[in-house]
Amino acid sequence: xxxxxxxxxxxxxxxxxxxxxIKRQTLGAxxxxxxxxxxxxxxxxGSRINTLHGFDYVVFxxxxxxxxxxxxxxxxxxxxxxxxxxxxxxxxDQLSSPASPLExxxxxSLGGFVRGLIISTLTFLCSSLLIDLPIExxxxxxxxxxxxxxxxxxxxVLVGVRAVQFDDVSFAQTFILTPLIFLGGVFYSSSLLPxxxxxxxxxxxxxxxxNLVRYGxxxxxxxxxxxxxxxxxxxxxxxxxxxxxxxxxGYRLRA
Amino acid sequence: MALQPPPHEAAPPQFGAPSGSVPALQITDLEKxxxxxxxxxxxxxxxxxxxxxxxxLGPNGAGKSTLIHCTTGLAMPTSGSIxxxxxxxxxxxxxxxxxxxxxxxxxxxxxxxxxxxxxxxHGGYFGMRKKDRKERAAELLDAFxxxxxxxDRANTLSGGMKRRLILARALMHRPRFLILDEPxxxxxxxxxxxxxxxxxxxxxxxxxxxxxxxxxxxxxQLCDQIAFxxxxxxxAQGTSGDLAKEYGVTTLEDAYLELVGRKELSxxxxxxxxx
Lengths: 255, 275
Hints:
The complex is a heterodimer of chains A (255) and B (275).
Chain A: H1 3-21, H2 23-45, E1 51-52, E2 55-56, H3 57-88, H4 91-95, H5 101-130, H6 138-162, H7 166-182, H8 197-202, H9 205-218, H10 225-249
Antiparallel strand pairs in A: 1-2
Helix pairs in contact in A: 1-5, 2-3, 2-5, 3-5, 3-6, 3-7, 3-9, 5-6, 5-10, 6-9, 6-10, 9-10
Chain B: E1 25-33, E2 39-48, E3 53-57, H1 64-72, E4 79-84, E5 87-88, H2 93-99, E6 100-103, H3 115-125, H4 130-143, H5 159-171, E7 177-181, H6 189-204, E8 208-212, H7 216-222, E9 225-230, E10 233-238, H8 240-246, H9 252-259, H10 267-274
Parallel strand pairs in B: 3-8, 3-9, 6-7, 7-8
Antiparallel strand pairs in B: 1-2, 1-4, 4-5, 9-10
Helix pairs in contact in B: 3-4, 8-9
């Protein structure tokens, strides 16, 4: 193993060990939250709504919940981890090491990505025990979920680097991320909305992410799959390039 | 709880060795301006020979920490050059940073990590292999009397223990150049003297040391060369005796008081007043 590989693994291990040490908060709470969503929307609302586009309501909702779990956890992990380390100045240990900006960015990004992956996988496994969840297009589903996870990991890094106080992170999560996800169509089909809400939903980037994931699981989508994948890939690339630039210039990391 | 002497190693040397005539640190015309407009360093040039124990003294805000941050990559220089054992610390930072161990002024320990993990991860960031990290961490925990606490989280330690852990972390990757930014601030007299003995031994084994401190007797006891920094510039450099002579006084403390324009605080003057 090269020195660079050892460095990268150590940086990544630090990020994963952080959430593993507080797993009640970082893994347990999100799992409970997702279970409550499934219970409320599946058992309570589901009994009132027969089917949506030919699927049981709970089956229609679960792909979005799996994606949401990955997105929110990837974001909150990375934004909190970076800000906490900046706050304690513990991040200076990594910044004064020989690690390159790329190694640092990848390690900070993948910490949240892995946490999101674990919670999404557990959500999928638990859901599969309760409902019959098909996987119609795995070759779309896997890249779509990975791209969504990486996008929100990058977004978490960006917010964590920019943040100067904890309020900055909670503001981004409460007032930007959560509304975008909830209004992107996790719990409903945009085709049911009246105008102008339907058009407004189509301006929300999360709408295309949910449609990709739903297509991967159920084979149903309201958006063009190839175009959505292309735009998502481009967005991930742009966000990664922006973050790499911030790490190279040391923006709000190095004085 | 006395600090143990660092165990002897034949090869590779435990704390590095002098590297011939290449200076440990060579800073040329270094300038650093912050976005706020503050000019923290105004053309600093400084050379620290390999193997020396070098003191950098100056009042708060003189530029000591900025100089250290520029050297270790925690601040981006505005202009000028920094070379660590001949490696450019900005454009070829990998080799330069591998050579440097930093014990910062702040107790910047990661609250999520145990003592052992603190050292292990640090070693990993510097590319050390797992087996080497494990052995080195055990050796340093023992040397700093921290073995009994190795599985505790760093935030549960007392201030003195945190200070020891910071020094152990700085030494973890066997740096050839150790930077101690006010290492004894806030520690009791006993631990201060123990740390003095320890770092002196580390220096005798070949590691170059840059020390910043507000305790002038610390600089006098430990350093073979001292520089005064004030308002972002190096204003004097030499041995403790050279500096006293340069300022026309008899002690390093009086020379320092001359530097900061507070000679009325000299112990000699106070003695006269009391008499």
